[in-house]
């Protein structure tokens, strides 16, 4: 996210008086300043119904390693929703007081400009004149907002609708009824969210079970599935906060050849998985009184569930795939999907496997295919964690951040190679996890989670030699967002001396800059952030959620509701339309803060460095003339602060950087995608061509 300021930032404080307004934010603190740009930035159950609804949330907290847990007696997990799961930034706008006389930012390099003696014409800063009429009438006409008054209608008067964490159990599901086994057929869970319009969806395909037909997904599969919003071993650890629906379908018990085998015939046919997701969204909406669409799709698989995953990938394009020791089959479908996603600069694939075992060969094939990309989003990693513990250990971490450096048992390649001879190597190459059987004694089936698989793995293996951390550098196609992760340039006490000097020069009437400088001069960085929150809240609820998420210090990625942004902002629609007008079937652009024309969006996201549009396949050659043409819009940006760049909120930016250094706040990625039509972007069909006018010769009268 990049920052921008008024023309006055290029002059010294002595030469140019402070305007007393908030400048646009570098990434989070924003202001609408016209064309200025930035350079970075349930318990109840109906006896006659198949469905249970558990509003209190997850029962998973009562499932400990090596314990039996009965569904009826299981205690409910304390579900805590932290409101600081999405929010961020501030800077008040006052167009009438700002000096726009010589603003020009497209050619400027801020770090090298002498702000006190700058000659704007020599420095290639374009002279742009901003008259009040341009701000009030030219681009902000009533035509863009005639259908909705965002500030009054939705954001200031209406109270946000909160959805508390919950769970649904469907004992007999129409689509899964044909699957042999023990009900329930489907488990749905969600985290806390506020006024959701879209939710991410995670579908987990479980593996074989030593319990055979008696396996129950709540008792035997959910605790080891990795479908967790926090660390199941330490529930207080921050995990995934993006509005998300977790879906765990029960597979079909098919004991021929292996009494532990489970497959998913009802979900591997084209359209079947999407039908299940649509049904789950409808049930979620009915239970919570909301209406939501699916945003990102994440598919996860453990052990024998990998076979069903390969079938699903033949006709489904998820946004992320996580496999947990699951690649016993030919991974061609997974490799093809990964290559397509890497070429587009989107998606994420994380593969975990145990070296020297049945999944090693296929996993290493995938690793060879993705290694050249060098992306933290596409990784194949080894682990000594017992087979059935892998999803539980790593699943919540990947749901929180698909590019995360995993902790708790990922091996470096050297360590894995040294340990290969010590590990059991399967002798049967039938492409399925033959070790996941029910040969263990039923009397001891509940004593160990790792025992459920029946594999002869070493539960006591150490977890030393974790892979060294690597900086997660993200890209969207060819576009690389700015990611500076700045450190404080001086101790906070020294910074306060500077702000105290400015504050002492303030007259009795505090303007916006003096107010924030005085807050920094005498307050703790956290106090400054809370002081700034008042301005952020005034901008709108989305901005407040992102800033609160920053202060929550989880660092979890936040989903950009691209569909909502396009619907709300005429400026965003216009910017993407203009980019699409220039040749090709794929392109990139950048959203500046001034282009939203919506303070909530502007304060929430600031400038978005990478915006990619892509025409979906099967479009005709003249697709630009077809309003029904489908376009995928993807966005990627990094939420951070840049205090070195002058502006009214410089002190607030410095306070935020100090909070990050103290571990009391954390920068994070924002990303999202949606599919729209050209009509959604405001493209209208071309008017029918006029018939040619008939030309009749006129003969001069001879009379």
From TrEMBL:
Superkingdom as given in the UniProt entry: Bacteria
Acidic residues bias locations: 47-61
Gene3D superfamilies named among the record's database cross-references: E3 ubiquitin-protein ligase SopA
Positions of the UniProt region annotated as Disordered: 1-23, 37-62, 682-703
UniProt feature, compositional bias: Polar residues: 1-10
Protein name: Peptidase M15A
Organism whose genome encodes this protein: Nocardia brasiliensis (strain ATCC 700358 / HUJEG-1)
Origin organism lineage: Bacteria, Bacillati, Actinomycetota, Actinomycetes, Mycobacteriales
């Amino acid at each position: 996210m990049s920052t921008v300021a008024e023309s006055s930032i290029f002059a010294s404080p002595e030469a140019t008086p402070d305007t007393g307004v908030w400048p646009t934010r570098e990434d989070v603190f924003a202001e609408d300043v016209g064309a200025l740009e930035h350079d970075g930035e349930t318990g109840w159950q109906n006896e006659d119904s198949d469905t249970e609804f558990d509003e209190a949330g997850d029962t998973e907290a009562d499932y400990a390693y090596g314990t039996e847990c009965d569904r009826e007696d299981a205690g409910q997990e304390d579900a805590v929703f932290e409101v600081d799961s999405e929010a961020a930034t501030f800077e008040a706008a006052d167009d009438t007081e700002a000096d726009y006389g010589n603003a020009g930012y497209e050619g400027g390099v801020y770090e090298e400009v002498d702000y006190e003696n700058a000659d704007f014409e020599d420095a290639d800063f374009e002279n742009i004149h901003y008259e009040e009429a341009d701000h009030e009438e030219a681009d902000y006409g009533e035509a863009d907002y005639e259908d909705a008054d965002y500030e009054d209608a939705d954001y200031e008067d209406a109270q946000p609708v909160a959805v508390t964490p919950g769970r649904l159990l469907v004992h007999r599901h129409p689509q899964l009824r044909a699957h042999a086994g023990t009900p329930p057929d489907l488990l749905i869970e969600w985290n806390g969210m506020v006024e959701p319009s879209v939710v991410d969806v995670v579908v987990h395909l479980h593996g074989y079970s030593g319990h055979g037909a008696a396996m129950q997904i709540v008792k035997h599969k959910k605790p080891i599935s990795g479908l967790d919003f926090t660390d199941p071993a330490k529930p207080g650890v921050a995990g995934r906060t993006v509005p998300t629906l977790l879906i765990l379908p029960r597979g079909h018990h098919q004991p021929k050849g292996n009494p532990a085998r489970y497959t998913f015939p009802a979900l591997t046919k084209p359209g079947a998985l999407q039908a299940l997701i649509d049904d789950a969204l409808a049930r979620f909406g009915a239970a919570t009184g909301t209406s939501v669409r699916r945003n990102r799709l994440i598919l996860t698989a453990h052990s024998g569930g990998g076979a069903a995953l390969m079938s699903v990938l033949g006709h489904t394009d998820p946004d992320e795939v996580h496999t947990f020791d699951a690649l016993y089959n030919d991974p061609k479908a997974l490799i093809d999907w990964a290559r397509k996603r890497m070429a587009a600069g989107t998606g994420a694939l994380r593969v975990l496997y145990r070296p020297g075992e049945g999944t090693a060969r296929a996993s290493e094939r995938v690793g060879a295919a993705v290694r050249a990309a060098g992306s933290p989003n596409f990784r194949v990693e080894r682990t000594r964690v017992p087979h059935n513990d892998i999803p539980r250990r790593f699943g919540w971490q990947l749901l929180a951040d698909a590019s995360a450096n995993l902790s708790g048992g990922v091996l470096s390649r050297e360590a894995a190679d040294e340990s290969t001879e010590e590990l059991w190597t399967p002798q049967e190459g039938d492409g399925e996890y033959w070790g996941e059987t029910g040969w263990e004694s039923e009397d001891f089936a509940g004593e160990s989670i790792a025992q459920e698989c029946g594999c002869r793995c070493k539960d006591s293996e150490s977890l030393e030699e974790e892979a060294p951390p690597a900086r997660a550098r993200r890209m969207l196609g060819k576009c690389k967002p700015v990611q500076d992760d700045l450190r404080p340039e001086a101790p906070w006490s020294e910074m306060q001396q500077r702000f105290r000097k400015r504050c002492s020069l303030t007259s009795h009437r505090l303007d916006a800059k003096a107010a924030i400088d005085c807050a920094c001069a005498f307050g703790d960085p956290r106090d400054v952030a809370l002081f700034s929150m008042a301005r952020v809240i005034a901008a709108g609820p989305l901005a407040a959620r992102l800033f609160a998420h920053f202060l929550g210090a989880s660092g979890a990625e936040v989903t950009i509701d691209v569909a909502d942004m396009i619907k709300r902002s005429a400026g965003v629609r216009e910017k993407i339309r203009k980019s699409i007008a220039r040749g090709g079937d794929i392109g990139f652009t950048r959203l500046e803060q001034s282009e939203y024309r919506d303070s909530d969006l502007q304060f929430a996201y600031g400038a978005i460095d990478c915006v990619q549009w892509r025409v979906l396949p099967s479009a005709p050659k003249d697709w630009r003339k077809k309003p029904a043409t489908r376009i995928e819009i993807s966005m990627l940006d990094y939420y951070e602060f840049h205090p070195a760049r002058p502006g009214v909120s410089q002190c607030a930016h410095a306070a935020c950087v100090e909070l990050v250094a103290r571990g009391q706040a954390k920068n994070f990625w924002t990303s999202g995608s949606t599919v729209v039509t050209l009509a959604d972007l405001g493209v209208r069909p071309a008017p029918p061509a006029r018939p040619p006018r008939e030309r009749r010769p006129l003969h001069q009268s001879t009379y």
